[in-house]
Amino acid sequence: MTRARQDRLLTLLLRDGAWATAATLADALGVTPRSIRSYVTSVNARVAPGIAIESGPLGYRAGPEGAAALRAGGGTDAGTPRDRLHTVVRSLLDSDAGIDLFDTAMELHVSPATLEADLARVRGLLSGTELTLERSAAVARLRGGEMARRRLLSRLAHDEMDAGAFDLGSLRRSLAGTAVDADAFGAFKSDLVAELGALGYYVNELGIADVVMHIAIAADRVAHRHPLSHDPAAGDVAGADVAAVIERLVQQHFAVRLGEGDVQHLAALVLTRVIAPGGEAVQTRVRPSLDPQVEAAVRAAVGRAAREFLVDIDDEDFIIRLALHVQNLRHRAQDQAWSRNPLTRSLKSTYPMIFELAVYIAGELDAELGFPLPDDEIAYIAMHVGGRLERSRQNAQLLTATIVCPGYYELHELLRSSVDRSLGQAIEVVGVETRVDPDWENLGTDLVLTTIDAPVAGERIVRIQPFLTDADVERVQAAAGRVRRARRLARLRTELERYFPADAFVRGLDVDDTGEEGVIRRLGSMLVDQGIIDDDYVERAIQRERMSSTAFTDALAVPHAIGMTASRTAIAVGVAEGSIPWGDSRVQVVALVAFSEGDREAFQTVFEQLVEVFSERESVARIVRRGTDFPAFLDELVAVIDG
Questions:
Q1: Same domain as 46, residue 178
Q2: Which residues contact 470 (CB under 8 A, 6 or more apart)?
Q3: DSSP letter (8 states) at residue 431
Q4: Where is the PTS EIIA type-2 domain positioned along the sequence (predicted)?
Q5: Is residue 150 part of a domain?
Q6: In terms of Cα–Cα distance, which of 27, 161, 35 is closest to 554?
Q7: Which of 22-36, 38-52, 310-324, 328-342 has the lowest mean pLDDT?
Q8: SS3 of 445, please?
Q9: CATH number (domain holding residue 37)
Q10: Whose CA is closest to 295, among 326, 331, 329?
């Protein structure tokens, strides 16, 4: 657990890139400031004499060796209970006859009593794996099928990976000591991607390391004479071209000859997890192979999501590609062979609305097709949704601009051309003023780019040179970012007092006894008492929480029900004195949101901007520290929004 918390600390600092106090970091991790100082020392020891985490008067921040420290590893946990547990499990997996407990205890340099305690932990690890631990005198052995054993190996490898960094380096460390050559992973992965691309497939690089791990596990098990049996009833699940590539590359790089059962399994794994037909193959391969039930379920789910959230995603090409992804999901769900997504946390905190759309679609698909999805798989659906929305709203993101450049030959024309070339994806020039005395007050565009000093000041006015420089481009981009942020938060500012009831505020949340569901019920009861929602809404908010944690940032959870059935829109707020566990994260503020049908269009604005405000650690610390009651909380929230 200590290693996991150290990695979590380093991940927070690497992501934010700013100074953070020990107290703030302690709240985020649910430990004491003294523990934070201990973690910093341990993390820096990984890359000594380098510096992974810098310390100073302002606290801590990621140092130049931060990323290297996150990947460093392997031996730091040697001899720990987790390392010993994994060693015992691997010994049990490798020996059909079982292990002698006294001999194993001597090899691990622990007492038999300690090993007995480890076996109790092994039984806990086997929960839900279709494997059982049998004991006969001093011999312990595992009972269960080969596929279940490989799933257990996969779980161990995932557990040994660095938090949030599923790369080939950590994969090498997690499978060190197996029969396959760990140094061959990189070359194997490169050749696999190249040959799949040559066959006309798009390769999902985010999931390829996970698949390489499964292939390495298969090669290791076959090398130890534990192959999968061939299943003729399964038919040709995977394409023969993919199967041939995997069989040849495994023999070439790992010196292992796979049997028909393993080739069949791994080809199906690759086909359903990391590749998709590209180009014209979408119509020639995908459409004929789609299950009509899956396509109908996806089409219905996307249509309902488009109407519920008022977004433009009901597109034929999007539906077909998503249906192929869902069909692959259903194959993986049968074996519980989920894919890991290293972007899940960042997608959730940066694009909460897109992630919420994905959760809605996942819920609809579960109701129709019968398989719930973990967060990592929901994140892949969010990437499909985000790609579609990005294509449909690119032009809507452009800010308008006026160029003020007093006429001298064709200087203003050259400047406009330079602005269009360097900034055309961010702003649209709609006017050029060549007078030295333009009507500044009536230049109504989002930005004014001027080569002369303006008699008025403001965030939207940016001084640039007649011949655009890199520094000018950076200043314009920064100003555009400020304008967009101010515009977004202004929309939230206008809704605050209307949406936050004064008598729906709690200071001093505690989930030790009640858990997340207890907090949701506590906040929900205040809105129920006001007639804003009913008990059914609270229960549906709890159901939504079970689908995917609503901890969208490291400080804020936004529980809510799917369906805008509140009599009016309202937000009940709970503030914890420290941080409280919420799903796999810890938060300091919980905002139970209830939206009404009439405020459907405001849903995206309020939802996204509330998450944005609580994504900034300094703002959170200020709001939590000073928001001792509802008026103070609202005042601080407004002050943060107004900057």
A1: no
A2: none
A3: E
A4: 498-643
A5: no
A6: 27
A7: 328-342
A8: coil
A9: 1.10.10.10
A10: 326
